[in-house]
Write a structure and sequence with these properties.
By secondary structure, this protein is an alpha/beta fold. The structure holds S-adenosylmethionine.
Length: 373
């Protein structure tokens, strides 16, 4: 994910700490992986309000920021898994298990054909849309049934859904994001096999235990919504963290698989990436070259009119959505006093496809600390 996690120990954490000292609530309006929302909620006694256009991002943030206690007793995990197991049709489960066991010895091309045939008529979203592509049939079956069997208890449900999204992200057979699955061919076949062999039950449990241990110091909220609309809820004394899109391709193209897991449903799918149609995916004006500047201008203007402070991060150079670090600094200066400019670096996987993991790139990012004029 294009997460800010690494930057938290590399300049961003310090910038947040300085600005938070003087603020009441903290907004993270483009929360993505939720890394910044989690960090602030765990470390500071402030209400955190995290939002994003994508539901998977909001579910990740909610897993921590909406809970104020650790969940030390993990027995609910066994009941959750038992409940999911009971839903799994025995014929499909048996065939999917046989295929999983053969993966180590069988050629991936043959296994992929068998996996796709098995999943094609199966009426659960992950199996149907991604089984035999991003996931093995058995992985898909667990993701679908665990999604349906999520506990009713609100905190267990939050943790469970966040854990499913984390495990789905860690096991997807794709290079860093889900724009396209690895193909079962000579070059990418070994990556596909390696991903399909990941133990999805272990990954979900590990993520659930890790999320359970984390919690906010003060209860926050995670909301699906447009940053420019949510900015109207900001008031004087709030701090708004802004990490707007820098890609000229809608983020939903990279994260549609996680969105399906978060929503528990999928519509029509097509193409090599097995995407839902673009009109069913969240679209962002920030990813349109003609709109990115005015829409960021509008956002900064509203936040400044409310009398709030802000921290903005953006790649230092030119980004593919038509904005550059310089544009972002110029726009910020129209409405705010720039307290501090920091430069940080982080790894990004967005845009990498052909070279798989090697496609991770080191980017230099600006961190602007803004206060009301
Ligand atoms: C650069 S990423 C944020 C990464 C995040 N800070 C992290 O640490 O993972 C930008 C995010 O903005 C979201 N987004 C795009 N347009 C948006 C909008 N108009 N309102 C809210 N969120 C939006 C995308 O879905 C994506 O998750």
């Amino acid at each position: 994910m294009g997460s800010k996690r690494s930057m938290l120990t590399n300049g961003l954490g310090d910038a947040l700490s300085q600005s938070i000292a003087e603020c009441n609530r903290v907004f993270d309006l483009f929360t993505g992986s939720g890394a910044v929302a989690w960090h602030v909620a765990q470390k500071y006694d402030r209400e955190v309000i995290a939002s994003d256009l994508q539901s998977y991002a909001v579910a990740l943030a909610a897993g921590v920021i909406e809970r104020t206690e650790p969940l030390a007793d993990h027995r609910w995990l066994d009941s959750w898994f038992d409940c999911a197991r009971e839903m799994q049709p025995s014929r499909f489960f048996q065939k999917a298990t046989n295929l999983q066991e053969k993966l180590e010895v069988e050629q991936i091309a043959g296994a992929a054909i068998e996996a796709r045939e098995l999943c094609a008529d199966f009426n659960l979203p992950v199996c149907f849309a991604y089984g035999g592509y991003y996931y093995s049939p058995l992985q898909s079956l667990w993701l679908d049934t665990l999604r349906i069997a999520l506990p009713k208890n609100a905190n267990q449900r939050r943790i469970g859904l966040a854990a499913l999204i984390i495990a789905a992200s860690q096991s997807a057979a794709a290079p860093g994001h889900t724009a396209q699955p690895f193909k079962p061919n000579e070059t990418a076949g070994r990556f596909l096999k390696e991903a399909w062999m990941r133990d999805i039950q272990f990954l979900v449990k590990r993520a659930a235990v890790s999320v359970s241990e984390k919690h906010a110091l003060k209860a926050g909220r995670a909301i699906v919504g447009d940053a420019n609309e949510l900015a109207n809820q900001v008031i004087e004394g709030d701090l708004v963290f802004l990490d707007p899109p820098y890609s000229g391709v809608h983020y939903s193209r990279f994260y549609h698989v996680l969105e399906t897991v978060a929503l528990g449903e999928v519509g029509e799918i097509s193409g090599n990436g097995r995407y839902p149609p673009s009109e069913e995916r969240p679209r962002s004006q920030y990813s349109l070259r003609t709109r990115s500047k005015p829409v960021l201008d509008g956002l900064l203007k509203v936040i400044s009119q409310k009398g709030a402070s802000a921290i903005v991060t953006f790649p230092a150079g030119a980004a593919s959505n038509g904005l550059s670090g310089e544009d972002v600094a110029d726009l910020s200066e129209r409405y705010f006093a720039i307290e501090e400019v920091k430069v940080s670096s982080r790894f990004s996987t967005l845009g990498g496809d052909k070279k798989h993991r090697e496609a991770r790139q080191n980017t230099t990012e600006l961190i602007l600390r803004l206060s009301p004029k």
